[in-house]
Amino acid sequence: MQGLGSLENKTVIVTGSAQGIGAALVGKIISLGGRAVAVDLNGDKLRETMSPYGDRVLSLAGDVADPDFVAESVEKAVSHFGAVHGLCNNAGITRTAMIEKMSLDQWNQVLNVHLTGAFLWTKAVGIHMIERFKAGDKTPGAIVNHSSVAGLKGSIGQINYSAAKSGQLGMTMATAREFARYGIRCNTVCFGVIETPMTETIRGDKFRDGMLAGIPLGRWAQPDEVTPMICFLLSDDAGYITGQYIAIDGGVHISV
Ligand code: NAD
Known about the structure:
Blueprint: E1 11-15, H1 20-31, E2 35-40, H2 43-50, E3 57-61, H3 67-81, E4 86-89, H4 104-134, E5 141-148, H5 150-153, H6 159-179, E6 184-191, H7 200-203, H8 208-213, H9 227-234, E7 245-248
Parallel strand pairs: 1-2, 1-4, 2-3, 4-5, 5-6, 6-7
Nicotinamide-adenine-dinucleotide is lined by residues 15-16, 18-22, 40-42, 63-65, 90-93, 113, 146, 148, 191, 193-194, 196-199.
């Protein structure tokens, strides 16, 4: 499929794609002519979610923060589809507690998935893209890190998640600076409140009104409203954009 944001013949790894934003993103990538490597801890759910896409998707079940799983997955993706042109570090968890009640385990779990996981995939996919650059492909790929307005403003009860999501902004800038010499771009998207299983509690009766009051556009978004920007950043049409972040949040980052 040609046109703005085309992903024709591109293969993109999307972590955390059994549900929510990752699942919607795989659908969008396919609709733009691409193929996806879908990764998730929940193998049964992943296979069920990906079943409509047939051989356009390779599903791999495992933990994004397991170094052996990451290395094997990138190898499998390359041997299955020939190359990997995009990576979306999307897998995420929350472990919510006020600072004085947060356990070290809750802190470590969240940093492990969002930061260690994103680092391992960036490294493994980066090595593959650098090899392709050295073999003559001057635009071997793009990486998008899925952060949050929590990483821009902080979030009450989420010191672990806020730190991890701010950390992804630093990772993006470091990756963009290191990999620019190989033609590899790296950007961040910062979501506000998107209607997925992750946000069920904050969209529920107890928090709903307060959450909506902080969103200038006055509503949360559907996953399909955030995927076009991610695909654009992955595409060659964004060829001069790197080290950038864009909030897809209905204006939350400018609300008081
Ligand atoms: P979700 O909970 O609906 O889906 C996350 C997926 O990641 C799940 O399928 C889960 O199984 C998978 N996952 C979790 N830990 C994993 C691991 N260790 N290894 C492999 N897979 C793992 O979440 P979502 O709302 O779709 O969020 C996607 C991303 O966007 C996350 O990084 C999240 O922090 C970020 N985000 C979401 C929102 C929102 O409003 N939904 C807002 C800001 C940021």
